[in-house]
Amino acid sequence: MVQYRYLGNSGLKISEITLGNWVTHASQVSDDAAIATVQAALDAGITTFDTADVYANTAAESVLGRALAGQRREGLEIFTKVYFPVGPKGPNDTGLSRKHIFESINGSLRRLGTDYVELYQAHRYDHETPLEETMQAFADVVRQGKALYIGVSEWTAEQLREGHALAQQLGFQLISNQPQYSMLWRVIEGKVVPTSEELGISQIVWSPMAQGVLSGKYLPGRPVPAGSRATDEKSGAHFIEKFLRDEVLEAVQRLAPIAAEVGLTLPQLAIAWVLQNPNIAAALVGASRPEQLADTVKASGVTLDAGTLAAIDAALGEVVYSDPEDTYTVSPARRLA
Description:
The protein is an alpha/beta fold. Helices cover 37% and strands 13% of the residues.
């Protein structure tokens, strides 16, 4: 069964493997398959579910709400996010203004079929709205009982520090950040993680398998598999492009004997690796079929010794990307609508 970790400097425990529905619900899979996958997650001990209003332009939240209907609400941790354009994408249908935050949380709760979410996250940093306005709106969302905690996604170390200070002044907790992180993509290690450790902020990391590249199914010198994420523009194909170089794919193949040595599959090794970092509260995983989760959850509770971690670093060598400056380019300079 999946193990649990505290989220940031709070008393909230979450499942260290968390089910996300970015490119699956209301997109890649039918609603029936999505509901079956959520049930499989619950059966495996996953109690934490992550979504966002922008996923499938709000439809993914609705599917998750239906999938969780009838479950004991107190036994779940439901996360969602706000920032990106939704609905008809008018001038106020995006960003972190007070107007958009309140309209978004109300819409998300309605679609999810719940009175509150455990974690409400700023999906990106909004350079066009004063941070004070954003954090005051989040404080009011918490005081109204619509969210228990506040998190962010892909914020820089400096943005985390400023947001944390304002949250303290306003009387609520900023407890999490949701960045991309994997064996291949380690840009948060230089600045974001040390700052987060100081502030009591955890990482909930997305793409721990580097968009599927760390599964080993993409082979050097070969066409990408038909029907894979790399062929589907709606499923984030542009996110995987940076990993599809032959030198990266060759390095990933060198991980296979290391995984075998410790009795893991390549996907399990990838997820177990991110969970070795004590600042990581959870690895976000997706699944299009229920049976995928039975394999994935075996990464929970795995300890990789120093020799294994060193072997992974040696196998990947120079293909690892770790420039902390990349964290400064993720949030758009201007809103997208």
